[in-house]
Amino acid sequence: MSGNGTSRILADGPWTHREISANGIRLHIAEAGKGPLVVLLHGFPQNWWMWRHLIPRLADAGYHVVAPDLRGFGASDKPPRSYDLMTVSGDVGGLIRALGAREATVIGHDIGGLVAWTTAALHPGVVRGLGAVSAPHPRRLRRELISSNAQRRALAHAFAYQLPRVPESQLTSDNGAEVREIMRKWTGPDWAHTTDFAYATEVYRQAMCVPQAAYGAAEYFRWMMRSLARPDGARFAKSLAVRIDVPVLQLQGWLDPVLLPQTSDGSSAYVAGPYESHYFDNLGHFLPEEDPETVGALIEEWLLTL
Questions:
Q1: What pTM was estimated for this model as a whole?
Q2: Concatenated DSSP letters for 105-120?
Q3: Using one digit for the tens of pLDDT, what is the confidence trace for 278-306?
């Protein structure tokens, strides 16, 4: 796969790589450990690599950890359509079943967090616990996109991505330089000056330049914004009005400039089970990478309660 620019996408480490068929597509996963299943869902503009610190930590703690590339990203399939949260949550449910598990704890960041919320609502039988990192409940996000100028400004890129072919060109020109700029703008003040940040952004730049990856990434935002005014979006929002029975952990940076802390506030209204939240003063959007030790310890401690 290195011929398609994926050499760093399948990076070696304390994990293995393989492909799983789920929900009619092929998903690449990075996998480690044995025990209860924990599925880690990445956000934009990243891929599975964003969980590189947490995968070995949780594997060593006694969990079977699986971090897929979502459809459209990295080394997973990039179909021409179906980037709505209903379909992608079906990918996650299918992945859990394909791994031979009855249920899993699903932890997601950004878009992956929206997918995690959706999976818990639409496929409750396969979700044991839900972690939402820099990710409000989708109904909260929908409400704020309709009513809040601040949240609309924060997601201005998502509105710009409605144009055909333009975002794909922006995300891939100059070997994905726009990806590095997005990461720099959205992170807190400390991580952006580290060698870890420099290497991670190179991985994400390379992953975005895989053929059709930028298209897949943009399609998530196209559906997100268009669904605000379409009947299928209203039906989706109605289907998520249920309260989630499983334990929920919500993590949010106060300096997050894209999915705002005030948008995450109120997500607990959709939780019937135990709910725990933590807000971080000096962190931005990429919590598991900005402070992997603190975030990893919180997640590991929370998993012990399930």
A1: 0.97
A2: EEEEETHHHHHHHHHH
A3: 999 999 999 999 999 999 999 999 999 99
